[in-house]
Amino acid sequence: MSDIKILLSEKEMPEKWYNIMADMPNLPKPPLHPATKEPVGPQDLSAIFPMELIKQEVSQERWIEIPDEVREIYRLWRPTPLCRARRLEKALDTPAKIYYKYEGASPPGSHKLNTAVPQAYYNKQEGITKLTTETGAGQWGMALSQACNFFNMECKVYMVKVSYNQKPYRRSVMQIFGSSVVPSPSNETEAGRRVLAADPDSPGSLGIAISEAVEVAAQRDDTNYALGSVLNHVLLHQTVIGLEAKEQMAKAGEYPDIVIACCGGGSNFGGMAFPFVYDKITRGAKIRLIAAEPSACPTLTRGQFGYDFGDVAGLTPLLYMYTLGSEFMPPGIHSGGLRYHGDSPLVSQLLHDGIIEATSLGQTAVFEGAILFARCEGIVPAPESSHAIQCAINEALAAREAGEAKTILFNLSGHGLLDLPSYDAYMAGKLEDYPLPEDILAKSLSNLPKI
After folding, report:
1. Degrees (nearest 5) of the Cα angle 125, 129, 132?
2. Residue 245 confidence (pLDDT) above 90
3. Which of 279, 281, 306, 303 is nearest to 291 (CA)?
4. pTM of the model as a whole
5. What are the φ/ψ torsions at residue 437 (nearest 5 degrees)?
6. What does the buried/exposed string (b/e) look like for 161-189 if buried means 16 or more CB atoms within 10 Å of the residue's CB?
7. What is the mean pLDDT of residues 371-388?
8. Which of 204, 273, 346, 421 is most exposed, with minimal Cβ within 10 Å?
9. What pLDDT was estimated at residue 310?
10. φ/ψ (deg, to 5) at 133
């Protein structure tokens, strides 16, 4: 019997990140300045980002070197294991082979540290001493807190209020690593005060938390802003996931028919899928690449493709992406990391061009799949990651019905050991599905900026 875990040595860890912009048939339209509506230049972004990340944001070089200092920290958890889900295959009685890349092996328990470390590194190189950010479920906040700790930097995290209350232990981990954590919307910023004036009980959203973090960073010379998803450089850093997975699949003598990852802003999906998108674009590989999102926040499956702000206050550049509208307030589902109104322009463009596909899932089915996976494979997955699990289960069952021995690869982007209250709610029958009503979607989309 072949191995369950396919491992790489530290010497086999990627030395370069893969940049999908070198090979896309159509690049996304450029970001626009929020005030002038003209394409943004480096000087427009330098108030909140270091120049090296700005260069990566626009680069069309296929390979970008990973700094030695970043690779040295990566070695704390990379390369991560690729595993064969044999017991899940047996439970599903499927001829499909199911593999998963386990990013929950990182110190904070998710894939987010892959970009938090280089972002902190490049900021430190330019003399920045403090970073601000937002976080939904808390995985990104934990990762940036740890990365700032590695480089002796301060970190301030605006955590979406509904997740601040749902995920108290992620907040605790951020504080262990020295970060200041504030529930968003807060009274600390003009953006937060505006939201609270309109709705004192606002549960918050990633769009609001981004506004608060950007506002603070823009006001201080020693402070920059760091984003955990959506932007090109973030997805670039995450490609270590797919690059390792390709090497591991080759070691197993396999190549996937289907690659799956959950998708909120796009960093996890892009990180896993883009190295395989390369094969599809340049070599004609017959492979399906599926982004799995919540039906309560169906950006890719029901959103509109066009320019929109990345935040509620309109402080960020306008991005050309699939969006539900920057004022969209997603329900308080337990996959806090997927509650974002927009999506990566790179992921959005690839979907628009038919190179990748997307599907949406209700949260009760997602938790059902998560518990089946935990009982079979022994890992309690994060609710976000469980969207990929349930999508993989659906594809494995479809393979059974068709009698096809498909090879399925998905990214298990984080563990759920700090999400146990969500599992308690599911097992107590207290979780509901929130399919997005058409009238609420139409109202939100009606407020898109006119460009």
Report:
1. 110
2. yes
3. 303
4. 0.96
5. -65, 145
6. bbbbebbeebbebbeebebebbbbbbeeb
7. 97
8. 421
9. 87
10. -160, 175
